[in-house]
Amino acid sequence: MEPCVHVITLGVDDLERALAFYRDGLGLPTEGVVGDEYEGSKTEPAGATVLFKLESGLILSLYPRSELAKDAHIPPTPPASGEFSIGHLVRERSDVDALLAEARRAGATLTHDAHERAWGIYSGYFRDPDGHLWEIIWNPRYSPGKS
Q1: How confident is the model at residue 2 (pLDDT cuts 50, 70, 90)?
Q2: What pTM, to 2 d.p., does this model score?
Q3: Distance between CA 81 and CA 132 in Å, rounded?
Q4: Which helix (H) or strand (E) segment is 125 a member of?
């Protein structure tokens, strides 16, 4: 396996609500819901999904939680948060506060205000409307654009 990730798929309870949060609230570019012509069945997953093309070729995908479980052939489970977080590096320290405020306005719940960490970064956390945990990070050694 090559050391890269191409797609991160988040299971969501309400695809339209999640689309609005990421597209309208956070400004991520997308064509909206695609694949909705595939209806699925009791055992086969439906195709409706939302794709966001991010930098470096990464795709953030939103897929109904129930359909993701069918697709992976696993039993559906209740939403859980805290098992992992998605980290978003920003260029400037002030961008952390700005993005946390933007996320809150879009409907996110802040779980930890931005603050200085002992190891030299400045970061804070929010949960999206489906409970997915995001950390917004300014790290002077690893900010976007630095090599």
Answers
A1: confident
A2: 0.89
A3: 6
A4: strand 122-127
